[in-house]
Specification:
The complex is a heterodimer of chains A (332) and B (353). Chain A is α/β, with parallel strands linked by helices and 332 residues long. In chain A, 38% of the residues lie in helices and 20% in strands. Chain A has two domains: 184 residues, Rossmann fold, CATH 3.40.50; 129 residues, Rossmann fold (3-Layer(aba) Sandwich). Chain A contains 13 helices and 14 strands. Chain A has a seven-stranded mixed beta sheet with strand order 3-2-4-5-7-6-12, with helices on both faces. The radius of gyration of chain A is 20 Å and the shape is globular. Chain B is an alpha/beta fold and 353 residues long. In chain B, the strands form two sheets. A six-stranded parallel beta sheet of chain B has the order 1-7-8-4-3-2, with helices on both faces. The longest helix of chain B is centred in the N-terminal third of the chain and has 26 residues. The chains are: A alpha/beta (332), B alpha/beta (353). The complex binds thiamine diphosphate and magnesium ion (MG). The site of thiamine diphosphate has 15 residues of chain B, from strand 3 and strand 5.
Chain lengths: 332, 353
């Protein structure tokens, strides 16, 4: 990135502007989803697009997520560049069959004869009083299936570079936008067009004592906890995974080789989640580097995040709890 | 808004099937077309007979039969323009994919799971058709998913102002899936250049149409803002006529249509099914009296396009071509497991984990 300048933005503004510029750039790109047209999206990611690009490229679909996924596949098969919005990650499941059985498998099952350059954007995650059906983490369901790429940027700069990467990607990408970070997280975004390749985790804070891996909102909580511990002389290396699949274990393992302690923080159910995979790979590939058990902080095993503030707090890992666990592991 | 026209759903069942009267000329079909259509129907039938024989010999673990559907498939496929229009078929559509360009040898490559299977290189079960070169969109097992893909492709054609159109095929069982209703809805809202063809053989494995479909399939078109037409799928010319009307309408900007072609499947659902558990021998025998192939042969001789002698010759030629296809496929190689990690992604190496 050369010095063409930067602009400070929050994440939703970044996504809006990036989609806008990509729509201008490539007339094969089509945006489709519920309320993306006249309303500009319930989170305003596509505000003004209908007026600017017209209703053939900004399509208010019927309320049918299976349709959104299936029609996007058809558009991609005919060399368009669909960018579908699923209004909330919690409601993507009517499209699960199309995404998992069709989108993920089309390249493999046709032995490379067909491929799907398509993007599926969706707001995920909790901490917004969204309760069971407006807080879910869905990455584990989808990252389980080869053929999909699943990414979860947590900063405006990454949101832009990874969204452009997703649009350019020859394969289907599930692009997860943590809705709590939409307006909470601001940062400098380079004005020029750039991509951030998938499968490259980022060491956001260096430290010698503990490796802490996370993504999404939890990444910001981990950074906060790590910064607090620094005053006590505990230095945590904080890694933002950014991409769930492809998963950059090399960066994680390199860090673990240095700190000899690893923790993974995620707000999805702990059981069989991304943290389970990361910790299994650490166990397989770096067991003898470890000076303590791998720590996993994740959501308790209940069906989803409950509503009342006391219950939401109980469910969602927060900087206090993360700080405690970091300290324990550092002192182990 | 969707224009409302009177009487947009109609049945042509029980119409005129009389022989001796030229029905093809006014449809724009030449004698060569008729002979080619006949050849495709026969090719499908003989491929089917051969695949069952190979199944009984233990050489083909899984067979999806087409027999009975040849008239509906060849007639409807004939209405499209090869090399331009797009086909989104389902597993039953052996005759249709032959019309779209697959060869018997390629069909048997797929049956055996050989590397040269154009649909998947031996990855998918037989009858999961696909070939970019022939505009046949790759299919899967989950029922009716292709109908939404067809709607998406048709939407792309509309956005591009292309004059190519899309056809998609499914059984009456497929019309119960949400994907089907979503595609009908999308096609109706956007008046997409799409022709939806239901091959109604009255059974979804064992479940009879009466337990599958509330009301009638073709009448559902009305609720989705498009014409719905029912016709005799055992009559290849009628299948062509109805589909051609829909194709012309779609190509000229007139929007989608639903065509329901009534037919019957003569064999079990697949080689893993036993149809004696849910339908009577008498019912099957009665349906075979309406076999689309002898019916078309009678027509062809009654209008003096083919005589008995020529029919016998063509049957032999097609049989030989099918046998050669089987031989080529039997001799071909299986895929190398070293290739099984390929094509998971375009740009990521496969991981063996
Ligand atoms: C989603 C899904 N559910 C169930 C099945 C199993 N199955 C395969 S074919 C079939 C019946 C389909 O009948 P129909 O659509 O009428 O087509 P036909 O086989 O009669 O041509 C069923 C239930 C499937 N393949 N996919
Ligand atoms: Mg059926």
């Amino acid at each position: 990135m050369t010095a063409t300048g930067v602009t400070e933005k929050n994440i939703i503004q970044t996504i809006h502007d990036t989609l806008h510029d990509e729509m201008k750039r490539d007339d094969r790109m089509v945006i489709l989803g519920e309320d993306v047209g006249a309303r500009g999206g319930v989170f305003r990611a596509t505000m003004g697009f209908l007026e600017e690009f017209g209703d053939e490229r900004v399509i208010d679909t019927p309320l049918d997520e299976c349709l959104i996924a299936g029609v996007s596949i058809g558009l991609a098969l005919d060399d368009m560049r669909p960018v579908a919005e699923f209004q909330f990650a919690d409601f993507i499941f009517p499209g699960f069959n199309q995404i998992v059985q069709e989108a993920a498998r089309i390249r493999y099952r046709s032995n490379g004869d067909f491929g799907l350059p398509m993007v599926m954007r969706t707001p995920w995650g909790g901490g917004v009083h969204g309760a069971l059906y407006h807080s879910q983490s869905i990455e584990a369901f989808f990252a389980h299936v080869p053929g999909l790429k699943v990414v979860a940027p947590s900063t405006p700069e990454d949101a832009k570079g990874m969204l452009i990467q997703a649009i350019e990607d020859p394969d289907p990408v599930l692009y997860l936008e943590h809705k709590k970070t939409y307006r909470l997280v601001k940062g400098d975004v380079p004005d020029e067009r750039y991509t951030i390749p998938f499968g490259k985790a980022k060491v956001v804070r260096e430290g010698a004592d503990v490796t802490c891996v996370s993504y999404g909102l939890m990444h910001h909580f981990c950074l906060e906890a790590a910064n607090r511990l620094a005053s006590d002389g505990i230095e945590v290396e904080v890694i933002d995974l950014r991409s769930i699949y492809p998963l950059d274990m090399d960066t994680v393992l390199e860090s673990v080789g240095k700190t000899n302690k690893a923790m993974i923080v995620y707000e999805d159910n702990r059981f069989l989640g991304v943290g389970a995979e990361v910790s299994a790979q650490i166990a397989e590939r770096a067991l003898f580097e470890l000076d303590g058990p791998v720590v996993r902080i994740g959501a308790p095993h209940v069906p989803a995040m409950p509503y009342a503030p006391t219950l939401e707090h109980w469910f969602l890992p927060d900087p206090d709890r993360i700080e405690q666990e970091m300290r324990k592991l550092a002192e182990y | 808004m969707v224009p409302s026209k009177g009487n947009r759903v109609r049945s042509t069942m029980g119409g005129e099937l009389s022989e001796g009267k030229d029905r093809h000329t006014e449809l724009g079909l030449k004698e060569e077309d008729l002979v080619d259509m006949y050849r495709y129907m026969l090719t499908a039938r003989f491929c089917d007979e051969r695949q069952w024989a190979l199944n009984r010999q233990g050489k083909a673990p899984f067979v999806v039969p087409v027999s009975g559907h040849e008239g509906a498939q060849v007639g409807s496929a004939w209405a499209f323009e090869k090399g331009k229009d797009v086909f989104c078929p389902y597993y039953r559509d052996l005759a249709l994919v032959l019309v779209a360009g697959l060869t018997p040898a390629e069909v048997f490559m797929g049956l055996f799971g050989k590397a040269a299977d154009p649909s998947s290189g031996g990855r998918q079960m037989p009858a999961h058709w696909g070939s970019r070169a022939r505009n046949i969109i790759t299919g899967s097992s989950p029922i009716a998913t292709q109908v939404l893909h067809a709607a998406g492709i048709a939407l792309a054609k509309k956005i591009k102002k292309s004059d190519a159109i899309v056809g998609t095929w499914f059984g009456e069982g497929g019309t119960s899936e949400g994907d089907w209703h979503g595609a009908m809805n999308m096609a109706g809202i956007h008046q997409l250049p799409l022709v939806l063809v239901c091959e109604n053989n009255q059974y979804a494995i064992s479940v009879h149409e009466s337990k599958q479909v509330a009301g009638r399939v073709f009448r559902r078109a009305e609720g989705y803002g498009m014409p719905g037409i029912e016709g005799d799928g055992n009559d290849v010319l009628e299948s062509y006529r109805l589909t051609k009307e829909a194709v012309d309408r779609a190509r000229s900007g007139g929007g989608p249509s639903l065509i329901e072609l009534r037919t019957y499947r003569f064999y079990s659902h697949t080689s893993d099914d036993d149809d004696r558990t849910y339908r009577s021998k008498e019912e099957v025998e009665a349906a075979k009296k309406k076999d689309p192939i002898p019916a078309f042969e009678r027509y062809l001789s009654s209008v003096e396009v083919l005589d008995e002698h020529r029919i016998a010759e063509i049957r032999e030629e097609v049989k030989t071509a099918v046998a050669e296809g089987v031989k080529a496929a039997e001799e071909a190689d299986f895929p190398d497991p070293a290739t099984a990690m390929n094509n998971v992604y375009a740009d990521l190496p496969g991981e063996v984990e």
